[in-house]
Amino acid sequence: MDSPIHDLKGLFDQLGMESSEKAIDDFIASHSPMPDDKKLIDAEFWTPQQAGFLKEQLREDADWARVVDDLNLRMHQVH
What we know:
The protein has helices at residues 8-14, 21-31, 48-59, 65-76. It is an all-alpha fold. The radius of gyration is 12 Å and the shape is globular.
């Protein structure tokens, strides 16, 4: 059985956040670049539930892990 294909819109939906392309771009722009020594999952802007979901996905290398990694990369880049 194939793993589901997830994207940033779906991740933002899963986190209970606005998921339009503009909202995602605005979120990334307003919270980046993150310091190199700060992990995305430890950022102050997540609710405890959101942070827990992100940590669990990465820890278990779950279906969402690739998208969380992609968001992490984007959040650490200068835009």
